[in-house]
Specification:
The chain is mainly β. It contains 13 helices and 58 strands. The strands form 13 sheets. It has a seven-stranded antiparallel β-sheet with strand order 38-37-36-35-34-57-56, with no helix packed on it. A six-stranded antiparallel β-sheet has the order 1-2-3-4-6-5, covered by helices on one side. A hairpin with a 4-residue loop joins strand 34 and strand 35.
């Protein structure tokens, strides 16, 4: 139906035709009420003659009209005038992306700018539950202000007559653009929508937002190269190309395009939707990263050196000095070192905690795990030749990163899996299960070593996947961690907890299981170029000569940096590349703050001065706090009395004391202590007077967890390499005998008695990640899973009517518990989100007796300390 100029459709008067397509005709019209020009699309009769289809179209059109985004064309109105159904849309002046691409590929800056806008618009719609299903260059308008997405969601809304509710248009209908001036098909070649259809669309399977991401990958490829990602002279050959082939590398067609763009596009064009980039938000982040300069990290060395020769005066500018420092760091390690060059990298805004920084082997890029204000932990990347630091999508809930030897991948542990992810962009791949994995190292032979908790050995696995197996054997598996490969890819360093409680440096070899002590006591270590080993001790980063052939150290250690604390587990925050770039974070003394929060998460009051605290435990009446505190290297239990304003040391033995718990009447405190060859649980009067009493000892670590209200039982966790962490109950009447409560191949931890003593709440990784469970302690056997998306640190209210725990996204959750003899769990709900202290979501809070407040460990402004970068750290070391 062709409308004449002057035709009135309600308050809209047709001014002139704009174009036609398979889904209707488009006109410029005048809104006589508001005095503005609009675009009106008249819909074909065959699409709206079915009343059910028309009603669904109007309902979905209202949803689409709610999309308020600067890069989405606004749908103003839906109307009917006689037999004419029409849409009223924002009138946009400009050209379609399809028209622009007729003139060739886009410049890199314009490609990234428009790509970010398009991805952001798709993300906004997907979050609203709207999928385009016909995304292509013809549905993108380019204006002076940027990109505008057209016809968003109408492909879904306008299902053909007879199609199931929610179905998409047929392929034949989709080969013409709803808004294009002319059809997008021509004789002899297949173009149009087929070019952007995902494999699942072509097979007629259910589609979702990931189908739009496939189309986005096709469009980005076309914007970069000026060519279609898939081509064919017939419908059959084009479909065959989409289903079975990969597009040519972008670098081969557009050498100036960011190298990371090819990885991102390929991640969008994964044939399996499960292996594809999962959200448009991730695509936006990657494009933003490239636009900020991160993509320059993959430049060739000749290009970098040429730019340095052209800009020698840039050394006078501080910002360019940082870029030049990054370029210097890339020079071959065989060249004589230049003078040291130091600069700092600030912690990104909004980050509340930051873990061990890791420099890539080629010295170009820095990676670290960090937690933002929402409690989300991700790996952040900072190229040394860029001025911004950005999170790496796909690394949520990750622990410390480690690099592949070619600096192209990052390995990390998250959600009970060891994973790897390309830094240039793309999805993370699972390497193996790692329920207790933490830190790793990647050899040139594609072997990964990673450690677990203190009861697990260092394990090895092929970087391409497989089953992890122990890399060391015998008594060397007790308290080991921090593996790092030596340059030969066969030998590796790791730490072992000695009988005196200190971290001892060991060297092992793949395939033998044999280990050797190096005679170094201190922190984790790394091998630096020119034959040095770096490690920390007494708050000082030290270097010492290392003989690769004899696997031994020589000479005296010498200081490299100051104020580098060493954690009890051997962590020290430094890293060195194979070409002499050193990074470290001198954080000063580790501190956190005890604070009272109400049930909405607002801070009510701070408790005592900031210090290195762990594991707060309130006395039964809420008047005192037992807590682990590290002071001048000693780890002891202290008692805080807020009303009196006093903090008093409670234990004085030379071992490491932790996890204090109160007796039900508050008269005693029990704690765990590691005293060299043995560990145990000890107890004494909470007044501090009198001698301690030994409850249980053994070769494996012991952690007291809770004391039952009737005083009869004390829960603790212990374990060995076979069963990992298990829960035991120690009788507190008569002989102190222990019985297993939870002893499985999984790791059960942090159990708490319900006030009535019938149940225990605990966390376990039996599902592949930590979740909170409740099990029967006394009475008929029963077990209930409480959290479903990750949970830890369960804690009962004093009346037993609520169970609290921390979710994986750092929300404090509260679950009501019904009264009665049986366990009646309700539905957990979030009270508030919390950024806990750096060591993680473990033993970081307790609840007041009346349940109205929570005592939390919070960061104490530690994250403002920047990361120091030293280029050519060994310059000036000389022969030692």
């Amino acid at each position: 139906m062709r409308l004449a100029v002057g035709t009135r459709l309600g308050p809209y008067e047709v001014v002139s035709p704009l174009g036609a397509g398979g889904m209707g005709e488009v006109y410029r019209a005048r809104d006589t009420r508001l005095g503005r020009d609009v675009a009106i699309k008249v819909l074909p009769q065959h699409l709206i003659e079915n009343a059910e289809v028309r009603a669904r179209f109007e309902r979905e059109a209202r949803t689409i009209s709610s999309l308020n985004h600067p890069n989405i064309c606004t749908l103003f109105d839906v109307g009917r005038e006689g037999d004419v159904e029409f849409l009223v849309m924002e009138l946009i002046d400009g050209e379609t992306l399809a028209q622009r691409l007729l003139r060739g590929p886009l410049p890199v800056a314009e490609l990234l700018r428009l790509g970010i806008q398009i991805a952001d618009a798709l993300d906004r719609a997907h979050r609203a539950g709207i999928v385009h299903r016909d995304f292509k260059p013809g549905n993108v308008m380019i204006t002076r202000s940027g990109a505008k997405l057209m016809d968003f969601g109408l492909a879904r809304a306008l299902a053909p007559q007879g199609a199931p509710a929610g179905g998409a248009l047929s392929m034949a209908q989709l080969t013409q653009s709803p808004t294009a001036v002319s059809p997008l098909t021509s004789q002899g070649a297949l173009v149009g929508t087929f070019l952007y259809m995902s494999p699942e669309q072509l097979e007629g399977r259910d589609t979702d937002a990931r189908s739009d991401l496939w189309a986005l990958g096709c469009v980005l490829y076309e914007m970069a190269t000026g060519r279609h990602a898939f081509e064919g002279k017939s419908q059959a050959s084009l479909i065959g190309a989409i289903m079975n082939t990969e597009p040519a590398p972008i670098a081969a067609l557009a050498p100036l395009a960011p190298p990371a763009l090819d990885g991102l596009v390929r991640a969008c064009l994964a044939k399996d939707p499960e292996e594809r980039v999962q959200t448009a938000h991730d695509v936006k982040l990657q494009l933003t990263w490239m636009a900020s300069g991160s993509s320059q990290v993959s430049q060739s060395m000749p290009a970098v050196r040429h730019r340095l020769r052209r800009e020698p005066l840039a050394w006078a500018v501080a910002t360019v000095a940082i870029l030049a420092a990054g370029a210097l760091a890339w020079r071959d390690a065989t060249r004589p070192p230049r003078a040291q060059l130091r600069f700092t990298i600030p912690v990104p805004a909004g980050v509340t905690s930051i873990d061990l920084p890791r420099i890539s082997p080629d010295g170009r890029m820095l990676a670290f795990a960090a937690k933002d204000s929402t409690g989300r932990t991700m790996i952040w990347l900072r190229p040394l030749n860029a001025l911004t630091t950005n999170p790496l999508p796909g690394t949520e809930n990750s622990l410390r990163p480690f690099w592949s030897p070619d600096s192209r991948y990052i390995g990390f542990v998250a959600d009970g899996k060891l994973k790897k992810i390309p830094v240039a962009g793309g999805p993370a791949e699972v390497v193996c299960d790692a329920a207790s994995g933490a830190d790793g190292s990647w050899s040139p032979k594609d072997v990964i070593l990673f450690d677990g908790d203190q009861n697990d050995p260092v394990r090895r696995v092929n970087a391409n996947g497989g089953e992890a197996t122990p890399a060391v054997r015998g008594d060397s598996t007790a308290g080991v961690g921090w593996p790092v490969f030596l340059p030969d890819g066969n030998h590796f360093l790791f730490t072992r907890l000695g009988n005196d409680g200190a971290q001892q440096m060991m060297v092992g070899a793949l395939g033998t299981g044999r280990t050797k002590a190096l005679g170094i006591v201190g922190s984790r270590a790394e091998i630096a170029p020119d034959g040095y080993v770096l490690f920390a001790r007494d708050r000082t980063l030290l270097g010492q000569r290392f003989d690769m052939r004899a696997m031994s150290v020589h000479g005296d250690p010498f200081p490299v940096a100051e104020d580098l604390p060493v954690a009890p587990n051997g962590q020290a925050n430094f890293s060195v590349s194979r070409n002499g770039v050193l990074v470290y974070r001198a954080t000063g003394a580790t501190t956190n703050q005890l604070a009272w929060l109400d049930r909405s998460g607002h801070e009510v009051a701070q408790v005592a001065s900031a210090a290195d605290y762990r594991a707060p435990a309130l006395s039964p009446d809420g008047s005192r706090i037992a807590i682990r505190r590290t002071d001048t290297g000693n780890i002891d239990v202290w008692i805080i009395e807020p009303a009196r304003g006093t903090t008093t040391r409670f234990t004085f033995d030379p071992g490491s004391d932790s996890n204090p718990i109160w007796s039900p009447d508050g008269s005693q405190v029990a704690w765990g202590s590691d005293r060299g060859k043995t560990s145990g649980i000890y107890v004494k009067s909470s007044s501090g007077l009198g001698a301690e009493q030994t409850l249980v000892t053994g070769p494996n670590p012991f952690e007291p967890l809770d004391w039952s209200r009737d005083g009869k039982w004390l829960l603790y966790q212990s374990g060995d390499p076979k069963t990992r962490a298990d829960i035991f109950a120690l009788s507190m009447t008569g002989a102190h005998t222990a019985q297993p409560v939870l002893q499985t191949p999984f790791s059960e931890q942090r159990a708490k008695f319900s006030p009535n003593g019938r149940w225990i709440a605990y966390e376990s990784d039996e599902s592949g990640r930590n979740e909170v469970y409740v099990a029967t302690f006394q009475g008929p056997a029963g077990k209930w899973q409480i959290s479903t998306r990750g949970g830890s640190d369960p804690c009962w209210s004093h009346d037993g009517r609520e169970l609290f725990f921390l979710s994986a996204d750092q929300h404090l959750m509260a679950m009501p518990v019904g009264a009665g003899d049986s366990f009646n769990p309700g539905t957990p709900h979030a009270l508030f989100q919390i950024a806990t202290e750096q060591s993680g979501r473990r033993n970081v809070y307790d609840v007041s007796p009346d349940g109205s407040r929570f005592l939390f460990l919070l960061p104490a402004n530690e994250t403002s300390t920047p990361i120091t970068v030293v280029v050519n750290w060994q310059a000036g070391v000389g022969r030692r």
